[in-house]
Each structure stands twice: as structure tokens, then as C-alpha cells.
Amino acid sequence: MARSVLVTGGNRGIGLAIARELSAAGDAVAVTYRSGEPPEGLFGVRCDVTSMADVEAAFDKAEAEHGPVEVVVSNAGITKDTLLAMMKEDAFTDVIDANLTGAYRVAKRAIRPMMRLKRGRIVLISSVIGMTGQAGQANYAASKAGLIGFARSMAREYGSRNITVNVVSPGFVATDMTADLDQEQIVTRIPLGRQAAPEEIARVVRFVASDDASYITGAVIPVDGGLGMGH
Ligand code: NDP
Fold first, then answer.
1. Which residue minimizes the CA distance to atom 22 of ligand 1?
2. Which atom in ligand 1 lies closest to the alpha carbon of residue 198?
3. What pLDDT was estimated at residue 127?
């Protein structure tokens, strides 16, 4: 039977590529979208991950359609870049709320049904910036680094239930999030000399969510063209 999968922020960018990849691999995929329309050909549920009620409702709908969620990919994320000296408290707490507390809300709702199933895959999308830091992104880096400790704690808590929790850590990916950045300046720092396509992140997520990755948990998997090498 097809696995029931939920991908947050699955309406565009990396999340959409992950949803399409898992769907093509035979999974029954639900994607959350916060604004606009659900993507064509995928089961969409409206959800803002800054609301626990939204997260609960999204899982309820995904479960009603596809059964208990066995694979969850926490991908939804935002940036609010500015140097610390200029950073208002809202810019810090909003980014933490969406990127880190959002992942908490999603994992919290996912974990009990996975415990009942006695299997599960939780994949959190972090960023190379969580390890290396980045000027202008103290809020974002803190949120993405936080995901690592969060994932590793869950990996310890639920490993005995056959639930793996891993972090995929992309580098510089061609999506709306990076469209306004100085491409040339960043690409010169990447050993592979180019941005990633969202599909290159999605294929790694497909692997860590698969049976082939049955002995991987608490891992941080860089998919960054060498940008964060050594971190
Ligand atoms: P995009 O900006 O293209 O897409 C972000 C997605 O997250 C959208 O679907 C958006 O929904 C959703 N989202 C944002 N906030 C919320 C929220 N509060 N509730 C629900 N959904 C929300 O980003 P990417 O595809 O580039 O990024 C996806 C993930 O990958 C993020 O976590 C990002 O930090 C991470 N990442 C990206 C990198 C890159 O270079 N692009 C590098 C490393 C990590 P909506 O359409 O409604 O706004």
C-alpha cells in the first residue's frame, strides 16, 4: 500500500520538488500550502505552520484521505534578513516561529500515530547556514541550527519505535527564496560551481525517507555542492 506522506510548504520550490519526487516513487502525498492554490496533481491542504490548529487540521485531512502519516517532511520556511544591529524582535521571533517552532508543531502532531504504526520517517529541511552562519541571517541560522538539536533529540526518543529523524541541509538552491540574491558572488564559493536544482534536494529526501535508509537516524545530510564542507 502507498505510504501516507505529508510535506509542508509543498506548493512551490524545494517542497514541491520533494512532493513530486515522493509521489513519483509511489507514495500518497499530501502537501500543505499557506497561500495561493494547491499544486496540480497533488492533494493539497491549507496550513500555516505557525498555527497548531492549522497543523492539526492538515494532518486530519491527510489522514482522512491517505491514512496515518508515515513520512513527514518539514520544509516550510521563511527568511527575514537583516544585520543584527537593525533586526527588530519580530524579525527574529517570526523566523523562529515558522522555521523551528513550525517543525515542532508538525513533528508533535506526527509522532503519536507513528508510534502506533511502529514506523515512521521524519525529515527536517535545515540549511548549510545553520552550521556556517551568514551575515544578515542570524535569525534564520538560529532557526536552522535549532532543527538539528531538535531532530537528534527526537531520534533518541523514538529510535526504539522504528522512527527515524534526519535533517537534510541544502546549500544554495534555485527557488523564489534565493531569486534576489547575488548569484555570482555565492556560486564562486561553491566547489561544484553552481546552484542546486530543487530536484537534487528532493532525491536525497526520497532516499532518507526510503527503506534503503533504515539504519540512518539523527544524521545531518549536506546537499550543498560542497559549500559547507567541514561543517
Ligand atoms: P520558497 O520561498 O520557494 O518556499 C517556501 C515554502 O514554505 C512555500 O511553500 C511557503 O508557502 C512555505 N511557507 C513559508 N512560511 C510558511 C508558514 N508559516 N506556513 C506554511 N507554509 C509556509 O523556499 P524554498 O523552497 O527555497 O525553501 C524550502 C525550505 O528549504 C525552507 O525551509 C528553506 O529555509 C530551506 N532551504 C532553502 C535553500 C535555498 O537555497 N532555496 C537553502 C537551504 C535551505 P507560501 O507559498 O504560502 O508562501
1. 76
2. 25
3. 98
Beta-bridged to residue 28, according to DSSP, are: 4
108 within ligand 1 shell (Cβ under 6 A): no
Which helix or strand (DSSP H or E) is residue 61 part of? Answer: helix 52-66
Instruction: Work out the number of other CB atoms within 10 angstroms of the CB of residue 15.
Output: 28
Strands 220-223 and 43-46: unpaired
Residue of 6, 7, 8, 12 to test ligand 1 pocket, by largest number of atoms within 8 Å of CB: 12
Q: What is the pLDDT of residue 184?
A: 86
- Where do the domains of the chain lie, and which CATH numbers do they carry? 4-223 (3.40.50.720)
Q: How would residue 203 be classed by pLDDT, with cut points 50, 70 and 90?
A: very high
Q: Per residue in 84-129, pLDDT tens? A: 999 999 999 999 999 999 999 999 999 999 999 999 999 999 999 9
How many angstroms is it from 125 CA to the middle of ligand 1? Answer: 9
Ligand 1 contact via 35 beta carbon (within 6 Å): yes
Per the annotation, the verdict on 140 as an active-site residue is yes
Q: Convert the pLDDT of each residue in 142-193 to its tens digit.
A: 999 999 999 999 999 999 999 999 999 999 999 999 988 888 888 999 999 9
| Phi-psi category of residue 136: left, alpha or beta, with phi > 0 → left and psi -120 to 50 → alpha | left
